[in-house]
Each structure stands twice: as structure tokens, then as C-alpha cells.
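anyone else get weird line breaks when pasting these?? whatever heres mine. first is seq + C-alpha cells for prot A
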Amino acid sequence: MKQMTLKNIARACGGTFHGEDALLEKEIAGAVTDSRQVQKGDLYIAMRGERVDGHSFIPSAFEKGAAAVLCEQKPENPAGPWILVDSCPQALKDIAEFYRSTLKIKIVGITGSVGKTSTKEMIASVLSEKYNVLKTEGNFNNEIGLPLTILRIREEHEAAVVEMGISEFGEMHRIAKVARPDICVMTNIGQCHLENLIDRDGVLRAKSEIFDFLKEDGVIVLNGNDDKLSGIGEVKGIRPVRYLVNESDADLKDTSYFVTADHLKNHGLKGMSAILHFPDEDCAVTEPIPGIHNIYNACAAACVGDAMGLTHAEICAGISHARTIAGRTNLIEAGDILIIDDCYNANPVSMKASLDVLSLAQGRKIAVLGDMGELGAAEKELHREVGAYAAEKNIDMVLCCGELSEELAKGAEAGCETKHFEKVQDLIGALKKIIEPQDTVLVKASHFMQYDQIVRALQEERTPEK
């Protein structure tokens, strides 16, 4: 990693270097916080977690060839150089911020209440038509994950697309200081993290901290359908680029928006198609991911693609090549059933969007839903609201687990067969008996519910052994 010498790293994070002076000019190959991922030449950053203290694995990191260790206390008999800091989490951000200052590539930062990951995937797919793109992996979108993503950028990369997630005021400011995005994309303002952010206006204020470190010649891309985002005017003299989706069949050519989409056609679980209107051209697009929300993602990607110099043909090709990832509306054929794996995270807006996708399925539609976290004082009401929505969408059966999901089941019982369970394993056992050939099963809950085990259990149960 160019300029990432142990000397520069120690200086960037205010750390004290311990080791042979001759090693100060040594460049690291990468940076990791998981000792299992250490490769030769890496900097190992020893994080203290709730269950595990990374300092315990310093000997293992050196055994695997770590170039140096960043830590908060002196290691016992260190087998290599080490940098002492007051806080490893803060040092990680400081180091990533320094590294970002050495990079010339464009960084696209994505935030919003819902759809960050799917929008990130769509934008990365579009930009990949022209550039070598690095994108956020998994859930690396917070104060630990975002800096680690920045530190994954290498000389061959020509653009980076990073997801920026928060749960409290000030957090976006801190990670934006690291990422310093050239393009900011905001998908929507919904009901999430209300425990800390109080209401949608609070969510908007917290998300808008992304603009604090936007480059002077930066680009802001906003969803024109969102009422809260519509109120954002010029930021630092930058006029936002907006997109708008018309969900009716009427033509939508509005020059106040850079991209508009109309004539949406739903192909069920096979995806969506629409007409995108650019200022100077209309383009028909087809994307292979189900759900109308993916047309919004396509519009956001079109705005970013244009800002990055792609042709309309390249943009539309990138949209058509987009794919989902595990836990995010990922369609899995497990023997004679179809699983919609959307269990990475959940809030009321994304729950409803996933139920919209499930409603497109043929055969029986079964929703396996769990608790949504951080919704504040209205959490029970919001769970009941989602349950009522499932009933409106003619979902055949709703199975729930979790204290709050009992409210969800109550909301659904007027129009769906419902079952509530105290434990996930009890739900899995019942589900295995309920499932029939040709069923489609949606699995969705907040990440702490660990519903990925339900997806694995269904796959193991229904997929024939080879």
C-alpha cells in the first residue's frame, strides 16, 4: 500500500512506534482486525470486543506474518514491531483517513434508511461497465467497517462504492470524515434507528451529516419521490441531482429531474423493466432483481453513472447485469421450494418492500418474520402495521418469532394464518412440517434475530443430496 509505511501510520493515528528504526519505512500490505484474516505484511489492529479481546491474538498475528500490530497495551514478548495507541477504533479511522488523502480515485458514498446495499450493488454493477470498482462487502458500513473498506482500495481500483450506515447522531460525520465522498447518494428517509434519532426529521439530520466532508466539486444524488429529501436545496453551493419514479403507466418527462422512470412492468420474481428518461434520450431497461424498489436503485445508479462519464448504453447494460447478495432479496431455489433470503436486516419500510416481492410469487406465500430493532416508543404499533400489510398483500401464512413479532402476528391475523413462536428452533421445526412443494418462503428480520439459520435449515431440508 503506497505511502502506508509504519512511520506514516504511527504519525496518522498519534501512536508510539516500538521496534527497529529500520522498519519505519516498511509499507504494509493491508490492514485487518480479524487475526484469522492476517496475511504476510498486514497490519493487525487489536480490537476489544464484547466477547473477545483482539490483544489475545497478537502472537497468532505475528505467526501468520503480520508486519506490525496496532494495540492499546504492550504485547507480551512481541515478535515484531508494534504501535501503541489510546484507542484502536479511533486509530483505525485516523489511519483510513490518512490513506484516503493519498488516493485519487472517486468514491461514491451511499446512505439512506432502506436500500443502501441493493443500491450499492446496482451502482457498482453500472460503474463496472467502465471501471475497476471496489465496493463494500457484507455489513462493513459502520465506524469499523467503513475504514476497513477504504483500506481495501488498491492501485488497480478506479472507483469505490461504499455503504455508510449509522444509528446515532455524529456517527455519519465521523465516517464521512474518513470516506470524503466525491458523490453522495441518499436513497430515502424512513423509520429506522428511532430509538436514537427520534423521528424521520432526526433521521434526515443524522444522514445529512454525509455532506460535511463532500468534496467541493462533488455530486449529490437524491430520491425525488421521498418527501423529506425533496426539502434539501443547495448544499455548499452544489445543486442536487434528483431522480423520480412514476409507478403508474403515464409518461413522466420532467426536466427538473435528471432521470425519470415510467412504464414500469413487473415480471414477478424475474425482475422489472421500465423506460428511463435522460435529458437527451429515452432508454428501455430490464433488471433481473424483483421488486419495484429496484427501479429506484436503477435510477440512482443512472445518475451516478452519468456523473462518472458512462454512456447511456453502458448504464443500461450495468443495470441489466446487477445481482443480489446473500441476505438481501436473494432468491434461492432449494429443491421444490423458493426461498427469498432477506434476513440481513429489517425496518418497516424494507419489511413492506419484501412482502411486495413475496406477493409476486406463484403458489403459497409464506412469510417468516422476526423482530425489527431500534424503533423507539412506537415499536409495537409499527410491528402491527407490518402485520396488517402482510394481510393486505394476501400472504397465505405468517410465522413469527420474537417478543415484538407477537404484535406483528396480531396485525396479520385478520387476513392470514399466523403462528408465533418463542424460540427460533421451534419455528424451524414447525416450518419444516408446514412447507409444501412449490411454496415461496420469505425470511426477514433484523440481523440480531439470526434468521440466517432458518435459511440454512430450509436449504438443508429441501435440497436433495447429490
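and prot B, same format (seq, then C-alpha cells)
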Amino acid sequence: MGDNKVRVAIIGVGNCAAALVQGIEFYRNASDDQFIPGLMHPRVGNYHVGDIEITAAFDIDAAKVGKDLSEAIWAGPNNTIKFCDVPHMGVTVSRGMTHDGLGRYLKDRIQKAPGSTADIVGILKDTKTDVVINFLPVGAEMATKWYVQQILDAGCGMVNCIPVFIAREDYWQERFKERGLPIVGDDIKSQVGATITHRVMTHLFKVRGVRLDRTYQLNFGGNMDFYNMLERDRLESKKESKTNAVTSQWDTELDPDNIHVGPSDYVPWLTDRKFCYIQMEGTTFGEVPLKAEIKLEVWDSPNSAGVVIDAVRCCKIALDRGVAGTLVGPSSYFMKSPPQQFDDDEARRRVEAFIAGDE
């Protein structure tokens, strides 16, 4: 474009979108050469956080559609923490496609906006959007694939933040390559969340010579993500994604009865806070047992927003360079279910190499 902007559209104006929109404003003037709490990279290539510009947003909630994005992020059942005032943005939330995006439990909390689905492709083209972020609810398989086709037709890159598997699948990888477009996915990791903590501890057991015998990770919270996942049929891909992210750090296959990873319940008064309990049991020197227990409490949506900020800028760099298909390095570091799993030190090295143009 020549104006050093990263034009981004958002599908799903929930808590994750609210944290991201606040974060772009909060870090707009962050220093390039200092450690900034909450950011892994104030600048990625030529792009500062402040260069990210939201161009469009799509949702189906009657409380959000038709509102300016700065208002919509606080509408409906959204309940994340407010850490920044967001001025009027001039971006009106458009009516999106429903498909299977509204599960059995969410129907009790969300009223669908009237009217037909907006011209998604036309809006993305008219706003000259570079990258589209998928923040749909877990289990929105049909809706995600419908939106992917709109993204391809509009000629945009994609960051897939949910566990509907697109970037890791050969079929979709080829579709993005054919169009000359990049994608980062699937299923966003938090900066320091349940999955990354569990992965790092699993890798630590391995490199320090401790056999991992059994482990669990239990998560619960009070946002609509946990409420939606009370519908267990929508939870399968999430459990698969989180489990694979952990077991990929171990060389041998654990008996399925000895590993449990996944959300467990919804506690309304926690709002967007998430509690995680991890237990790991292993065998160390002399066949002596070892047990580790971890409790983690985070605000769920802000914990992933900084990772999304990096992912969209890597996607824009790929567009600038004409790199198409799934971005392996960024996907491995930012996502739970990339096409290739590495340990996190190697994944970080690959991201830095990608940013520098060496991968």
C-alpha cells in the first residue's frame, strides 16, 4: 500500500476482539527499544503496533451489529477487563453469517441481528483489508469455512485464532497458495497461558530426563467461550488442539487414560478470568516419583491479544514479500495446532528468522 499500515478486519466481536482493539490503542506509542510489558515485539519488520488499523468487523449479535466498534466491544455478553478508553473508530460492525456459529447455549444469551448477511467480500475489498482475524466461537466449523472462502475471494491473508483446522490442513494450504495468500493458524496460544505453561513443563521433563507418566490440565472461567463449551459436541476440536500442543513436546505416546487436557466448567462470576490447574506426575532418578502442581489465573482475552498483534504483522510481512500458504514459523510459535510442531525455543527462533527475512 505504501503507507505502512496493516489493515485488519475482525470476525466475531467478543472479548478477544475487545482486548485486541484496546491493546492497539494502549500500545500505539510504545517505545521500539525498551521492554514493554505485554508485547513480545513492539515492532515486527517495518510495522509498529500503532500501524495496525481496524478496517471492518462482523458479528451476528443484535447488541453489536450497526454500532461503532468502540461501543460494540462492550455490548452483549462481553465481560473482559477494561484497561484503555477507545475513541470512536468510524468502523461499523456489519451483519455476519451465522451458520453454526451460534451454539445451543449461546442462543440463550445472544439475539441474532435482523437482516441478511453483509457483502463480506465487497467490504474487505472496499476497505483494502490486508489480514482477517477469525474470532468465531469454538465449534463454528461451517461458519469458519464459509468465511475462509470469503477471505480467499477478497484476496486477504488470514489469522485463524480458533480450533477449526484450516492452516494445518493440506486442502486449505493449497487454496491459499493458489491465491498467493498467507495464513497463520490454528488456535491461538496465550502469552503465558495454560497451554504454553503445560508445553514448557512437558519439554522440561523431557530434556531433564524425567519420564512423564500422567498429567491433567483443567480450565474454567466465566466468559462466553466457556459457556459455549458446555456444549460438549463443540468441544472436540478444542480438546484435540490443546492435547496435541502438549503431547507434541513428548517423544513417546502417552496412554489416553493418562492425559486429560481441556476446559471443564463455566463459573459466571469469574467473567473473563480463567483459572487453570495442571498436575504432572513423573519418574526420575532411581525410579523415584516426582509430582508438580501449578495453578494459573489470567484474564483470558488480553492474555492472547499480544500474540494476535504479532501474528497479523507477520501475515502482512508475508503479503509484502509474496509468501503464500501457511507460515510455518509464526504458526508454530503463535498457535496450538500448526502444521508442524516444534519446541517453543525452536519455534521462537523460526519466528525471529521469518521477521528478519531469513526463513
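btw re prot B: The mean pLDDT is 95. The chain is about 35% helix and 20% strand.
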